[in-house]
Amino acid sequence: MEWTKYRMFLALLLVVTGSINTLSTKWADFMESVGLDGQKRHFVHPFLQASTMFLGEMACLATFKILYWYYSRRQDGSESQEKTTAGNTNFKALILLPPAMCDMIATSTMYIGLNLTYASSFQMLRGSVIVFVALLSMAFLDRKLRCVEWFGIIFVLSGLSVVGMSDFASGSSSEHKDTNSIITGDLLIIAAQIITAFQMVYEEKFVKDKDIPALMVVGYEGLWGFVVLGSLLVPFYWIPAYPPFSENPRNVLEDTPDGLVQLFNNGLLLLAMFGTFVSIAFFNFAGVSVTKEMSATTRMVLDSVRTLVIWVIGLALEWQTFNYLQVIGFALLLVGMCLYNNVLLEPAFKRFMGYMNRRAASTGRFARMEEEEAGVLDSQRADRATAN
């Protein structure tokens, strides 16, 4: 695979914006602001944050429409040649409703979990999606896993276990989380990966071969997600909920007016939400583009790099203390992902065999040259003996 400038740009965009998205969301969870009742409290509004995420994805659809209009005005076929607009635009938008619903449920659940656990653990536990994608692929895509993929799954499960243990061994952190909150948060994040796996399998089965432009895929999924979740914010305003799942004055699942008041009473909180809005749009565009330009394998590996970035920044900001178990857990997760996505053993084996073949061929050439030289010498000796 050739790494062109465009592909390197997409890879960098994926890592940077993905890291910003998780860190800005967690930053918002850390902040306090005055709510509707005049009391200062933490910003615990996961469904409002998820709505902001879908609003950011919707911006991709608006961007696509603007770019398509701009290129089509040239009347030279640019709209079907430019990377951002090229592809199939004649499809039923409803085909993207199921993955949008999966994304909505998974994202909302993960944001609740992120509020209850650590940002680094949140990102590492998302690696469990590999396990569920593998199982669902066997069930719905009739896929058979190779031996190396099973080993990858074993490594991922081992890494997840170590990450889970590290949460309880973290000691002190600026968040002062209790054990029940951490367990609940971690389990919610893992449960969300099951929903995400359904989304990935659905997209592979029904969307992948349609060659839909990346901006349209992200945009329509954002549109459906925002419409449905935005509608659900109304009943959520009346459904009772209590800490740690809720920290608003009315003790309901989502108090949107209170969340909006908190946002506008704290400029940094508003900045964090804007970071979520902007970063998610670029992150999803980069993710879909990396899958189309390169492969889903490359996307998974880059996502591992994002995990490392989030972990390092979280330590630098003292959001949690250093724990060697997280290093071990991350290493096991990375090895598992590489094994599962075939970027470790088989490529290394092929390079080794290629080296050995080249070495054997080189040795063979030297042997033949020595034999030829020996033959020439023998011939010369025979000629001199004959002459004498």
TrEMBL record:
Entry GO terms, CC: Golgi membrane
Endpoints of the signal sequence: none
PANTHER family: PTHR13146, SOLUTE CARRIER FAMILY 35 MEMBER F6 (PTHR13146:SF0)
Parts of the chain that traverse the membrane: 46-70, 91-112, 124-141, 148-169, 181-202, 214-239, 268-288, 300-317, 323-343
Family assignment from sequence similarity: Belongs to the nucleotide-sugar transporter family. SLC35A subfamily.
Superkingdom classification of source: Eukaryota
Subcellular location: Membrane
Coiled-coil residues: none
Listed Pfam families: Nuc_sug_transp (PF04142)
Lineage of source species: Eukaryota, Metazoa, Ecdysozoa, Arthropoda, Hexapoda
GO molecular function terms noted in the UniProt entry: pyrimidine nucleotide-sugar transmembrane transporter activity
Keywords: Membrane, Sugar transport, Transmembrane, Transmembrane helix, Transport
InterPro entries with a match to the protein in the record: EmrE-like, Nuc_sug_transpt, UCP036436
Entry protein name: Solute carrier family 35 member F6
Gene3D superfamilies (UniProt xref): 1.10.3730.20
Membrane topology type: Multi-pass membrane protein
Transmembrane helix in keyword set: yes
